[in-house]
Hints:
Layout: E1 12-14, E2 20-36, E3 45-55, E4 59-63, H1 64-74, H2 78-93, E5 108-111, E6 117-124, E7 127-134, E8 141-149, E9 152-161, E10 164-171, E11 189-195, E12 200-217, E13 226-229, H3 232-244, H4 246-254
Parallel strand pairs: 7-13
Antiparallel strand pairs: 1-13, 2-3, 2-12, 3-4, 4-5, 5-6, 6-7, 8-9, 9-10, 10-11, 11-12
Helix pairs in contact: 1-2
Amino acid sequence: MKTIITIMFLCVYNFAAAQEVIDAAYLKCSYEYKWEFDTLSHKDVRNDILYLQIGKHASKCFSYYTYQCDSLRAAPNGDKEWRRLFFAAMKKEGDIPESFPHHRMTTCVYKSHPTGKVTVTDFLMGDYYAYEEEMNSQSWDIEDSVKTIMGHECQKAVSNFRGRQWTAWFASDIPVSDGPWKFTGLPGLIMEVYDHNRQQYFVINGLQKISNEPIQFVIYNKKFKKLIKTDRLNFLKSESNYLHNQSSINEAATGISLGSGTGTIHYDLIERDYK
C-alpha cells in the first residue's frame, strides 16, 4: 500500500509525546469554510466549521466537526456510540448521512509552534502526518477598499499564494496577525478570505474573548500512536494522488473491486504549488 502513495518520512513521534499544552487562548474565533470538491461540475460544495484559538505565543486552527468525531471515538465506548449514531442517521437519511459525527477537514494548523514556524498535522490513508513550514509565508498588498463584517470595519488585501489569487478582509481594530487555516501576516484579524473563483471560502461567524483555554498539540483518535514526519510538498503530492485515484488505491489495499465509478472528479487542492 505504501508503494502506491509515497510519502518521504523523516521520523516517527510517539503519540504520548504529541500531546502537550502549547499556550493558553484568550480569543476564540469560528469560521464557516466552504470548498468545491469537484471544480469541474461546481456542484459538490462541502462545508465545515473551523475554530481558531489565539494565545499570546501560538495559535491553533482546526475543524470543529473532525474534533467532535475524534473526541467521541476517543471516549470510553466511543466507537459503540459512533456506530449507533451512524446507523440512526442512515435509517433517517439513507445513503451517506451528513448528521452523524464524521471527519471533514483533517488539517490542523499550529502557528508559532515552534517559534517562527508553522506545524501542520494531517490525516491520509490511515496515518497521521506532521510537517513544518515558515511563518508569514503570504506576501500581502493592502488596498483602499473597506467593508463591514460582524460590526468591524475591514480593509482589503490581496496575495498570490501557492497557486491561487487570494482576497482577504482584515479588522485592524482587532490587532491580531492571524486568520483561518494558514493565513497570517496582516495588521489585524482576517475576517474573510477567498480565492479568485471562490472555490475556497472562509468567513468568520463567531468571536469570543475567553480566559486560559488550553491550546493543545494533540491527536484525539485513540487508535493512533504516532505522527509520521514529512514535508509539505511530498504530503500534497500524495494527497492529490489519492484523491484522483481512490478507487484503484482502495482496490489494491482491500482486494475488492469497487467498479469504475461514474466519472472523473476534478479536485484542486487548496495549495497548487506541488505540481
